[in-house]
Every structure is written in C-alpha cells, then in structure tokens.
Amino acid sequence: MHIITEDVFLKNGLQTFIKQKEITLDSNDVILDFDNNFIIITTLSTLNRIIKNDNAFECYLLHSFLKIKKDTKLTEIFHTLKHKSWRNKQGQELKITLTQKERMLLSHIISAGNKKSRLIHSGLDIKTVSTHKYNMLKKVNQPSIAALTQVHNRWENFRNQPAN
Fold first, then answer.
1. How much of the chain, in percent, has pLDDT values that exceed 70?
2. Distance CA 141, CA 153 (A)
3. Which phi and psi angles does 149 have, rounded to 5°?
4. For 85-88, which contacts have Cβ atoms below 8 Å and span 24 or more sequence positions?
5. d(CA 52, CA 36)
6. How many Cβ atoms are within 10 Å of 141's Cβ, its own excluded?
7. How far apart are CA 76 and CA 112, in angstroms?
8. Residue 87: DSSP 8-state
9. Is residue 139 within 8 Å of 96, Cβ to Cβ?
10. Which of 76, 70, 74 is nearest to 36 (CA)?
11. Residue 114's pLDDT band (boundaries 50, 70, 90)?
12. 4 near 30, Cβ under 8 Å?
C-alpha cells in the first residue's frame, strides 16, 4: 500500500490508523492527497492507466475515485474502507466530460495561469469565458482556479516522482 502526500502529519496519522485498525489494503492500493479537502483511495493500476491517457490531468479530475473528506472522523474512514466496495469504481469509464471550450480553458489555466485577456483575444467574450470557467470548475469539483492550480501542481509532483 502507498500513501502519497507531502503532509507528514497526514501520512503518519494514516499509517498509525492503518496499523491500529488492521485494515487490509493490497500492495497495489494508493491513498493520495488530492487537495486541501479530500484524500483519494485508488489503485496503482488505475493511476497508471490515467497517466497514459492523452488528457491525463482531465481524466484524473473527472475520474470517479473514492474521495474522503479530510475532516472526516477516523472511525468513519475505517468504516468506509471496510464496508464500502470502492474497488468497483476503479473500472468505470468517465461519465462527465468537458466541452471543447472547457478543455481549452483548462489547458490555458494549466499552461498560462488565470489570464482571461488571451482567451478574450481568441474571439471569446469575457462573459463566455466566465461561464465556461464556472461550468468547468463545477464539473471538476473545485471551488476556484487557485484550488484547481493547487491540484494540478500536486498531480505534476505525483507524475514526476520516480517509480518505487
């Protein structure tokens, strides 16, 4: 089992929790620090399949992972992992997709930051850009561009880590 996070307290807490409760997770299982609000439970094979996708970050954002809020009580996390069949979600295909304009906006945000002016010069009105931004953030379950950028940075750090 792998715990991937830069938060030492979270990592130590999860390791202690797993040892104390004797949760049996496979060696292929991964607990990934998603953002400030969620941790993700998945498998290495699922993450490898996503990484190989042409739109890896989009696929990662839209994948139906088991997400657990970080402020959840440890006993509830234990109950969720023990009784919820989260492994059944691993093979599901994406049901939510971004439109071409939302994909363009996501790509722009990742590469250039939150500069609407370039998108407006590409023929889009500022209101249209705002609408696409709102819809995209809603679909990827992020409250803001800053949160999305933080998730992207964590994703890139994860992707660039050497394989164990």
1. 77
2. 16
3. -65, -40
4. 86/41, 87/43
5. 26
6. 17
7. 40
8. G
9. yes
10. 70
11. very low
12. yes
Cβ atoms within 10 Å of 38's Cβ, excluding its own = 18
| Residue 68 exposed, middle or buried by CB count within 10 Å (0-12, 13-18, 19+) | buried
Query: Which runs of E-coded beta strand occur in 9-145?
Result: 29-33, 38-43, 66-69
12: Cβ–Cβ under 8 A, 6 or more apart, which residues?
Answer: none
**Residue range 75-111, pLDDT digits in tens:** 777 777 766 565 655 555 556 688 888 888 888 877 7
Band of pLDDT at residue 129, cut at 50, 70 and 90:
confident
Give, in order, the Cα–Cα distances in Å from 98 to each of 61, 70, 84, 121: 10, 27, 28, 22
pTM of the model: 0.70
